[in-house]
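Example record for the data management plan.
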Amino acid sequence: MRLLCDHVSYTYTSLLTPSRQALEDVCLEINEGGILAIVGASGSGKTTLIQHFNGIFRPSAGRILADGRDIHAAGFDLHALRRRLGLVFQFPEIQLFEETVFQDVAFGPGRLGIPEDEIEGRVRSALSCVGLDFAMFRERSPFGLSGGERRRVALAGVLAMEPEVLVLDEPTVGLDRRASLKVEEIIRGYHDRGKTVVFVSHNMDFVARLADRIVVMHHGRILFDGGRAELFRDEAILHEAGLDMPQVPRFMRDFAKRGAAVRTDVFTVEEAKKELDRYAEAGKRDAGGRR
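Corresponding structural encoding:
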């Protein structure tokens, strides 16, 4: 599914507080098959933007198009759109409510009208995607699980609906490193099945490892839209948006500034190790040639 935000603006209005513009003239195209991260400081409009994708919010100006059709036009089936686009809210585990893991994960497919004889297969597949053994977890209460396990059950509930586009709001917030790495693995696995993934995150190390495209939001507008290497070369944009440089690119940048001939467009510990090993081997060869 192709999504397009066409000059979208949105203003929060309330009888009790002054109006506040959350989005201003946002133009964003999301094509099939990528992993897109939306980043920015608190209040920059990230969560408001993704809640426009499936019609939770309606633009004050502009349009949201799904495969070329305005999702708020007369006759458009928003229910069908929400089957194709799964939105996982921040702290999704607080929305768990059924007595067993199986019932919770099966709830969404049941609401979509999936035949009962297909639902068990979907639940089994979704739990496998998030690394939870079907036999071990199916009859357990979600409320007796660890925080990371509850987060994974909540993700499984969305994955069981098999959306074409998976949208996650701060998927690692409140999780320790081990649980965060598991969420990263889940996202990669879903993307590898040919799905599109969009996620909002404050965790720039997570973003650097995972996203192939990054959108930076600032005061409700898009400040940057491009690849990782381009963004992390431009420290001025990061500073303006109030974002931190991820640890691995920062280390490589600092090492290069001290005179080391190393690449700085590396984003994972594994990539950095390979580049440092290459640099060390090159140094040994140079030293041997000078003897």
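Summary line stored alongside the record: The CA atoms of residues 130 and 152 lie 6 Å apart.
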